[in-house]
Fold this protein.
Amino acid sequence: MSAATAPPPPPPKTPSKSWTVKVREKGVEALPPERLLPDGQPTYVASWIYVFGVASIASLIVIIGSGTILALKGPAWWHETGVGHFFNSIHLWSVELFFFVMVVHLWGKYWMAAWRGGRGRVWVTGAITFLVAVPCALTGYVSQQNFDAQWISTQAKDAMNSVGAGAFFNLTNFGQMYSYHILLLPIAVVALVSIHVLLVRRNGVVPPFELEDKLAAVPAARPSPNGAPPSGAPPTGTVSHPSTGGQSVSHPSAGGQS
Amino acid sequence: MSLLGPKDKTSPWKGSYAPYDLVKELCIAVGVVTLLAVLLTVLLSSPDDKPSTIAQWSHELPADFATTAAMELDEKSGTAEYGPPYNHSSGSVQHFLFLHPQRWLGVSHPINTADDYVVKPLETIPNDPALRIALAEYKSAPATQKKEWAEAYATPLEEYAAAVEEKKTLPSTVSVDTSTGTVTVKTSGAGPVPTMMASLQSLAQSGGLEGGLVSSSQFFQTDYTKPLLFMADGGLLDERAEGQHLLGEQWGLMNETGSYPGQPWLWLYALWYQVEPMKNSPNADIQVLLIMGVLSLAFISIPFIPVINRIPRWIPIYKLIWREHYRRA
C-alpha cells in the first residue's frame, strides 16, 4: 500500500439550480436562526408597551385553540352543553382580549413611530391584520346561531349589499359565514401575523428617537462595507451589559437589532 | 433584497444587550391570556339568547305576521322592494355619485316574495281542498288581478299596523284574537287571498313555515337568507333588539344581548351613522363604508403620510415609553 494520497480538491461552488436550495439559501440569508429566535435584545427594549405585541399573538393562539375545539364538536355543540358553552365563552373573551391588546399595541407603535428605519412594511402588515381581523370576528358573530346572529346579520347585510359585497359575502348565509370564519379569514390573519413577526425579527426593534439621530450624525459608528464592526464597537457575538452584572449574552449580528 | 425585502436602514445598535427568552415570553403570555379568558368566562360567561322563530312570531305578534305576509304577497315589503342582490327592484339600492356597486354583480340571491314566502309554502300543505281551490284561482289569475286581491287584503292590515304604532283607535276591519293567534280581515275584493293567508298563518304557527323558507332544494341546508329577510320585514326582531339595547340609536353593533360587549372595535364605523348627512341619508351604508375605506387606507399608510408620521416626534409620548433608556443615558 502506498501512502495515502491527498484528497482531491473540492469542486468550485457553483450556484445551485435546485429551487429547494435557492429557497433555503434565501431564507437563511433573510433570517439567520439567531435573528429569528434571538436570546438578547437591545437594552432600550424595556417597557410594558412591548408586552402588548406578544399578548396579541398569545390571544390569537387562545382564540385558535378554543375555536378549534368548537369546530371539532360542530356549531350546535356549545348551545347544548355546559362544556361547549364554557369553550364558547373562552373564545369570546379571548377575542375581546385580542382586540384590546392589539389596539394598545398599535397605539404604542404609533407613538414610537415604529415604521422608522425601513420598517414601513412592519406597520403595514400589522394594520392590515387589524382590518382583516374585523370581518373575521364579524363572521363569528353571525355564525352563532342565536338571536345575536339573527340581529347582526340582518342589520349588517345592507352595508355589504350597498358596495356589492353581498353577492359573495352573504351575512345571512350561515354555511358561507361559517366557512369564512373558521377557515378563510383565520388563514389570512395567521398569514399576516406570520409575515408581520418575520419582518419584526428581520428589522429588529425600532430604536428611541434621539439614539437614532445621534447614530445617524456619526458616520464613523456605522459598520464598514464589509460588515466589520467599527472601532470601539463591542465584538459581534457577545456583549457585556451592566444589567446582568457583566454577564455575556450572545446576540445576532448587530445590524439586525437596531 | 431577500425574501423579506431590504434590511433595516437604521444605524446598527452598538450598545448593550439584555438576555431575552422569546419562547419563554410567548409561553408565559399564552398562559396569562388563557387565565384571563378563563377568569372572565367564570365570572361573566357569554350570551346565548335563543333565536326567534317564525312560529313564535306568528303566535306572539299575529297581526304583525299577517301584515308582513300580506305585504310579501303584495310585493310591497322591504325585501320585495329591496333590489340587488335579491331582486330587480330599487327600494334599497344605494349609490355614491355615479357609482352603483350594488347593481354590479346583479341578483345573486333571487327572492320573489309572493312566490317564495306565500305561494310555494302553501303548496306544501296536503289535504286542504279549500286551499287547493284558492291557490288554483290565485295562480291562474292575471298579474293585475293578483295585485288587486293582494292590495285589498293588505291595505286594512297596513292601516291596523299604523294605528297600533301611532296608538290610535284600531280600525274595525281587522280583528285579532291573541289567545288563538288568529287574524280576521273584513274586506271585499280580496278573492282567494283570505283563505290563503289563513292557511299561511296556521302553517307558520305549526312551525312548518321555517323549513319551507330555507333557500335550497338540497336535503342539507345552510342558507337562511329567505327566512331571515322575511322575519326582518316584520317587527319581532326589532322588538327584541330594542329590549336588548341593540338598535342603531342604542348600542348597535357594540353590544350583544344581555349587555355583553359586542364589537366595540367598530365604534368608529358605528359613529358615522350618527353624523349628518349619513344619519338621514338613504345612501348611508355606502357613504359610511367609503369613509371607512378611505380611513383604512390612511391607517395602513400612516408611515408615508406627511405630518401624521411626524406627530409622534412632536408629542413626546416616546419619552414615557423609553423612560428607562433615557434615564440610563
